UniProtKB/TrEMBL annotation:
Entry's Gene Ontology cellular component terms: extracellular space
InterPro entries on file: Macrophage_inhib_fac, Tautomerase/MIF_sf
Domain of life: Eukaryota
Lineage, top ranks: Eukaryota, Viridiplantae, Streptophyta, Embryophyta, Tracheophyta
Protein's recorded name: Macrophage migration inhibitory factor
């Protein structure tokens, strides 16, 4: 159950937030080869963000997954998420920071229990 949480200082006036969420969800699902129903995306904004000493358009994100992350996959996810933010929110790729967290299933709760991931 991958989770992408994004925060931005870009105003959502005149922005179709549902379209952004949908694009991010499908992008992540396609990269991972998962159904979209497995992916969660949240988008918060506008919030106060200073990135590199300025308050120009910027975004910060965290991507959490269970036992699947690696440098190659992270690079692909970072590039594609940055592209969506640049295209739909005008956040320059150079003003987007993404933190990856690869965690164990027992550290995730779902349906009143914990996630158990079988080895592939």
């Amino acid at each position: 159950m991958p989770l992408l949480t994004l925060s931005t200082n870009v105003s959502f006036d005149d922005v179709d937030v549902s379209s952004i969420l949908s694009q991010l969800n499908s992008t992540i699902a396609n990269i991972l080869g998962y159904p979209q129903s497995y992916v969660t995306v949240s988008l918060e904004g506008p919030i106060a963000i200073s990135f590199g000493g300025t308050e120009e358009a910027a975004a910060y994100g965290e991507f959490v997954a269970i036992g699947i992350l690696n440098p190659e996959l992270n690079k692909k996810l970072s590039a594609e998420i940055a592209l969506v933010l640049h295209t739909l929110l005008a956040v320059p790729k150079s003003r987007f920071f993404l933190k990856f967290n690869d965690i164990e299933g027992y550290n995730c709760g779902l349906n009143g229990g914990i996630m158990v991931v079988e080895s592939k």
